[in-house]
Design goal:
The protein is mainly beta. Helix content is 8%, strand content 38%. The chain has a single domain, classed as Phosphoribosyl-AMP cyclohydrolase (Ubiquitin-like (UB roll), Roll). One of its GO terms (molecular function) is zinc ion binding.
Length: 120
């Protein structure tokens, strides 16, 4: 069966959450949004493409920073309303220059930073 991005379940803004995971380590790197065209572009180019809600424009991960995400696999969840994008990540994935956007952990009721920015 041929995959069609239009068959995914998008929210009222036409977006679907996409979780990026490192293909080698399994580490969860980030979450961003895609629309149907971003999904199609990602599959066509092999460069993970998101939809920037603030800029209302496509955002090819690493286009300006060089911290690219090369697509390894794109998976759908059982409800077809969330994506898992496994990637080969070059450099940090977070705009804060950390390997992962998930660098804050709640420990004993307090927020603790568990990951420092990557040294330049």
């Amino acid at each position: 069966m041929r995959f069609d991005p239009a068959t995914l379940v998008y929210n009222e803004a036409g977006l679907i959450p996409a979780i990026a995971q490192d293909a080698s380590s399994g580490e969860v790197l980030m979450m961003a949004w895609m629309n149907a065209e971003a999904v199609a572009k990602t599959l066509e180019t092999g460069k993970v493409t998101y939809w920037s809600r603030s800029r209302q424009a496509f955002w090819v991960k690493g286009e300006s920073s060089g911290h690219v995400q090369e697509l390894v696999a794109l998976r759908l969840d059982c409800d077809r309303d969330c994506l898992l994008v496994t990637v080969n990540q070059t450099g940090p994935s977070c705009h804060t220059n950390r390997r992962s956007c998930f660098y804050t952990e709640v420990q004993d009721g307090s927020e603790v930073e568990i990951m420092a920015p990557v040294e330049a």
